[in-house]
User: Which sequence fits this backbone?
């Protein structure tokens, strides 16, 4: 048996405690005892004893070691002492420095946490580097692509496919345990492909059988509590025909971590889809609907594989087709980089947000550091005598540099302590506001720690560098002879730093104004419908609402305070999906199933009750039976139809459209109907995105919508809840407000904008703190000059003007530089929005004015103080 | 006489160093102290005492062999010197004298 070794660190400490000649014996003795203790009572106990023993050897330190008096140590102590004296002597400047830097660091660290959370997505898969999702304009692709790749190209090691059923499928164990869930359908190798560890069950086998289901750990607890979930039967709504099918639980997986782009609790086997022959999924190339993932052999260039797609398409589907493309999106980048897809089954972050926040973090840190540098150099005149004396007493330049770095290190560490305090106070409310858990960024403490350390290091380096190099360069003779080194020439660095700071401030203020205006614009924009006072209730199933519709409608309509009762499958804010449509007059499509148009499903009277205006024709009517297969276009769709299918569509009323879908029939016509009307464009999804051309169906619905009188909402809700139980609705009573639901679609963007504004304001505040400190120094330096001027009869106003003029000149230059920069960035930013404000000149004027006003206010405080002070007091002093 | 003074622990360690010869090194001395005298002392105390005794030239030391448990470090064996022995002897003699003075009381006390 190899002997136990004592803890390394403790041995090392020991070697420092005792002299070399004793070390061999003592450490040997200790190791021997450690070995014995470890054998008898375990390693831990032995280690503790060992450490205690090592500490006891401290008593031999003084006795045995040659004690060297260390001059450098004493000097270091002196630096620290002087640094603290300076801190206390100029309390207000220290406060400005530390608080500015502290707030800045807090912002930077918060942004760091945010970026860490956002970039942590999908990094936990084994072979994650080689995993790609096949996507094009959608986040999904046809069912053929992935298997064909794997079969035809050796570079593709494996693949897996998924399909989300995001329509709240019913999952039940018994009559009293019913949940509505999104279901994931996945190939049987799903758990082998991705690293989602299983708690119970077999990775390879659990999805092999068609009637098996894998559920998450927390879901198993929710359903089965303490019982063993394995082998239990769950009844799940079948997506294809609405029947309930029994599924046997064959695996339980660990809950999916928050930072996975796939979020699911229930996984069903992909084989289910083969079951329904009408789906015909294997042969259809132009039908994008399956989330497909491939793993490439290490080192394969995904570009090569992308280029093969055209060949595949030509070989297996259509030999003529050209410009067929595909993207291999690395799974690790998917969350941040696929945000601009037309439609996807997962939620996304936005790489641009991450970039903008990173830029803001750097700017805030820079501003805080510049404050520090400016104040330190401004103070140089006071410190120059100290430098002179130190040099005369024999200090080397290197030592002075160390001294000034030590001072900025002390300041920085105080600022970090302040920043951590701010963070502990600020993070919980911010988490609540932004609905993100920033603390999740802390799960990997080592990177956080290195992040903090490197942040401190960078800050010390920036803040310390200029004062250290500048102050230490003074010639002792000239300083001690009375020259003020600060006045000559060197001021330009400080001036350019102030200009830099103010340029940034002007850009930020203008940016904040533009962001705010854009937010306001989005809020006030006419949506094309009236979302207010509309309740949305999910009935649970299309069929049962269809059966009960006439009863439900009459009963709700008769409640006092109800303006209108509607039903709809999709409501504004929902995603619409592309289906095949063949418009009349054109038969020579490249694609036999027509062109892809967004289908939008509403109930009979939904459009009018929501206040969507008709441009042409009429809305769906209950009285006309053929309306069940009629279509309505929105204005954009009308224009597109004219553009794509010719002028016959100038008059759309009565033209036929064939609607193709995969959900029933082999991509055959699902229904054929005529266009009965055109509605004005309304915002069917977030205002960030343009209004898409929509083909509006009159379709059976699963949601009940009620427009109520504003002050009767609670009574109406109570009455509907009572009625709800009599209807035997498959879903429990639930409701949402349409306006809130719709705002949810762009809430992320709005929160992001709010944060940008907050950070901009903080950055400006920090910049002003610096200016405040700087102006006070300048006023102080010129105090004698001011006094002499006053004695000779200068007016107070003239003095204030003189002092402010210098700063205002700098602000003026900053304005000239800042406006073009602001213009460039804000134009870029606005171009992300489909509906945006115009950049008007007054944003820039306003931004510059605000910046100058802030500058004048901060500077004038000290100018006025200097101007009205009694000249006798300043002249009398030595 | 002052420099020759032996503390109580010093006396015990010196005695055990003599009795363990030629195997007297710190951990062994510590163990003997615990076994025979019921005194639990930390190793650093033993080392301090041994160093002190060596400075007084009551013991001398030499490096011996090493074992794997020691991580390749050699043992330092201590050996009592004639001066050390004399000091122990003197201490014992003085003690015996005191005992003898108490002799007439022994029947009464025990």
Assistant:
């Amino acid at each position: 048996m190899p002997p136990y070794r004592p803890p390394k660190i403790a041995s090392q400490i020991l070697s420092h405690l005792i002299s070399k000649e004793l070390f061999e014996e003592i450490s040997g003795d200790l190791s021997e005892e450690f070995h014995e203790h470890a054998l008898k009572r375990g390693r831990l106990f032995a280690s503790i004893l060992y450490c205690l023993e090592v500490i006891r050897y401290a008593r031999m330190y003084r006795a045995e070691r040659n004690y060297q008096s260390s001059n450098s140590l004493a000097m270091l102590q002196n630096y620290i002492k002087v640094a603290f004296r300076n801190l206390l002597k100029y309390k207000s400047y220290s406060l400005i420095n530390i608080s500015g830097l502290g707030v800045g660091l807090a912002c930077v660290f918060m942004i760091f946490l945010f970026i860490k959370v956002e970039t942590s997505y999908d990094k936990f898969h084994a072979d994650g580097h080689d995993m790609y999702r096949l996507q094009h304009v959608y986040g999904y692709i046809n069912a053929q692509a992935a298997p064909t790749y794997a079969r035809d190209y050796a570079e593709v090691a494996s693949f897996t496919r998924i399909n989300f059923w995001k329509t709240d499928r019913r999952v039940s164990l018994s009559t009293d345990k019913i949940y509505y869930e999104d279901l994931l359908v996945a190939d049987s190798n799903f758990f082998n492909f991705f690293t989602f560890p299983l708690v119970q069950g077999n990775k390879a086998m659990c999805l092999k059988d068609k009637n098996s289901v894998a559920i998450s750990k927390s879901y198993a607890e929710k359903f089965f509590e303490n019982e063993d979930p394995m082998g239990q039967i769950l009844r799940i709504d079948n997506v294809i025909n609405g029947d309930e099918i029994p599924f046997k639980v064959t695996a339980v997986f660990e809950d999916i971590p928050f930072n996975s782009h796939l979020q699911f609790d229930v996984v069903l086997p992909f084989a289910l889809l083969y079951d329904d022959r009408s789906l015909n999924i294997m042969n259809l190339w132009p039908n994008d609907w399956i989330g497909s993932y491939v793993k490439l052999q290490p080192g394969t260039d995904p570009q090569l594989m992308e280029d093969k797609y055209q060949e595949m398409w030509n070989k297996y589907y259509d030999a003529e087709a050209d410009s067929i493309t595909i993207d291999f999106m690395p799974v690790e980048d998917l969350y941040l980089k696929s945000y601009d897809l037309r439609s996807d089954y997962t939620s996304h972050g936005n790489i641009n947000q991450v970039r903008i926040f990173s830029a803001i973090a750097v700017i805030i840190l820079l501003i805080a550091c510049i404050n520090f540098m400016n104040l330190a150099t401004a103070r140089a005149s006071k410190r120059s005598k100290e430098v002179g004396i130190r040099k005369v007493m024999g200090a080397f330049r290197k030592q002075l540099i160390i001294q000034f770095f030590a001072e900025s290190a002390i300041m920085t560490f105080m600022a970090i302590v302040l920043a951590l305090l701010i963070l502990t106070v600020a993070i919980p409310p911010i988490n609540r506001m932004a609905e993100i858990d920033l603390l999740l960024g802390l799960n990997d403490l080592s990177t956080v720690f290195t992040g903090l350390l490197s942040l401190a290091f960078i800050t010390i380096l920036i803040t310390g560098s200029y004062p250290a190099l500048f102050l230490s360069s003074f010639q002792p003779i000239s300083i001690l002879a009375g020259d003020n080194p600060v006045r000559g020439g060197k001021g330009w660095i400080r001036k350019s730093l102030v200009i830099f700071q103010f340029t940034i401030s002007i850009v930020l203020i203008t940016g904040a104004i533009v962001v705010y205006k854009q937010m306001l614009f989005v809020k006030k924009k006419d949506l094309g419908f009236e979302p207010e006072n509309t309740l949305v209730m999910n009935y649970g199933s299309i069929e049962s609402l269809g059966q009960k519709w006439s009863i439900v409608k009459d009963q709700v309509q008769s409640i006092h305070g109800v303006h209108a009762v509607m039903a709809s499958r999709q409501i504004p804010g929902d995603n619409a999906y592309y289906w095949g449509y063949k418009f009349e007059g054109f038969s020579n499509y490249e694609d036999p199933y027509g062109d892809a148009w967004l289908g939008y499903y509403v109930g009979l009277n939904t459009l009018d009750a929501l206040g969507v205006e008709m441009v042409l024709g009429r809305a769906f009517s209950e009285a006309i039976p053929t309306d069940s297969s009629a279509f309505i276009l929105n204005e954009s769709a009308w224009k597109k139809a004219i553009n794509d299918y010719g002028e016959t569509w100038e008059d759309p009323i009565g033209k036929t459209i064939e609607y193709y879908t995969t959900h029933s029939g082999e991509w055959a016509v699902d229904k054929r109907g005529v266009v009965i009307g055109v509605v004005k464009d309304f915002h069917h999804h977030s205002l960030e995105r343009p209004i898409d051309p929509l083909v509006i169906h009159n379709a059976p619905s699963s949601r009940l919508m009620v427009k109520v009188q504003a002050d009767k909402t609670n009574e109406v809700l109570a009455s509907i809840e009572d009625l709800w139980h009599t209807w035997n609705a498959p879903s429990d009573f639930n409701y949402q407000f349409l306006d809130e639901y719709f705002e949810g679609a762009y809430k992320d963007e709005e929160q992001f904008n709010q944060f940008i504004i907050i950070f901009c304001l903080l950055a400006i505040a920090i910049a002003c703190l610096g200016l405040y400190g700087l102006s006070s120094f300048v006023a102080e330096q010129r105090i004698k000059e001011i006094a002499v001027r006053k004695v000779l009869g200068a007016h107070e106003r003239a003095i204030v003007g003189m002092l402010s003029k210098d700063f205002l000149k700098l602000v003026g230059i900053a304005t000239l530089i800042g406006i073009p920069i602001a213009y460039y960035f804000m134009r870029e930013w606005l171009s992300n929005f489909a509906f945006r404000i115009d950049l008007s000149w007054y944003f820039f004027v306003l931004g510059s004015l605000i910046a100058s006003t802030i500058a004048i206010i901060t500077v004038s405080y000290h100018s006025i103080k200097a101007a009205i002070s009694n000249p006798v007091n300043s002249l009398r002093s030595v | 006489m002052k420099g020759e003074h032996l503390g109580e622990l010093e006396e015990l360690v010196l005695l055990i160093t003599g009795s363990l010869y030629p195997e007297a090194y710190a951990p062994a001395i510590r163990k003997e102290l615990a076994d025979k005298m019921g005194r639990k002392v930390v190793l650093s105390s033993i080392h301090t005492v041994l160093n002190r005794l060596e400075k007084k030239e009551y013991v001398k030391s030499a490096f011996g062999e090493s074992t794997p448990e020691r991580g390749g470090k050699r043992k330092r064996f201590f050996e009592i010197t004639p001066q050390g022995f004399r000091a122990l002897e003197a201490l014992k003699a003085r003690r015996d004298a005191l005992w003898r003075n108490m002799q007439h009381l022994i029947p009464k006390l025990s």
